[in-house]
Amino acid sequence: MENKLYVGNLPYAASEEDIKTHFSKAGTVTSVALIIDRASGRAKGFGFVELSTDEEAQKAISMFNGQDFMGRSITVNVARPREERPRSFGDRNRGGGGGRRDR
């Protein structure tokens, strides 16, 4: 499954439709996922594009990697599977709190 691509350094103003239109020059785009920051609701500047075949995905990499898209030089490569990471919330007490300050 080499037809899913990571696309980085996207302009924050780019929409999923903008990305789909751009990548359709390389083939049939089956999905676009623009990653959005939960807290701010703004794009994080990267996303994923899936094309219908591996050949179209390779064509998109050669056509668009390092090229200008809406004023930014984008990175395009084969998406790697997400690494499983342990869900740890770390040390909740990061110091500096709770003590009396009037001493």
Secondary structure elements and pairings:
Blueprint: E1 4-8, H1 16-23, E2 29-36, E3 43-51, H2 54-64, E4 68-69, E5 72-73, E6 75-78
Antiparallel strand pairs: 1-3, 1-6, 2-3, 4-5
Brief account:
This protein has 103 residues and is α+β, with helices and mostly antiparallel strands.
Write structural notes for this entry:
The chain is α+β, with helices and mostly antiparallel strands and 103 residues long. The protein is built from two helices and six strands; from the N terminus they run βαββαβββ. It has helices at 16-23, 54-64, and strands at residues 4-8, 29-36, 43-51, 68-69, 72-73, 75-78. The strands form two sheets. It has a four-stranded antiparallel beta sheet with strand order 2-3-1-6. It has a two-stranded antiparallel ribbon with strand order 4-5. A hairpin with a 6-residue loop joins strand 2 (29-36) and strand 3. The radius of gyration is 19 Å and the shape is globular. The N and C termini lie far apart (63 Å).
Q: Globular, elongated, flat, extended or rod-shaped: what is the shape?
A: globular
How many extended strands? 6
Distance between termini? 63 Å
Sheet-strand content, in percent, reads: 25-35%
The percent of residues in helical segments reads: 10-25%
Radius of gyration: 19 Å
Q: How are the strands of the biggest sheet laid out side by side?
A: 2-3-1-6
State the secondary-structure class: alpha+beta
Please give the largest β-sheet.
4 strands, antiparallel
Note the run of SSEs as H and E: EHEEHEEE
Which spans of ≥5 residues are poorly predicted at pLDDT below 50?
none
Number of helices: 2
Q: Quote the average pLDDT.
A: 89
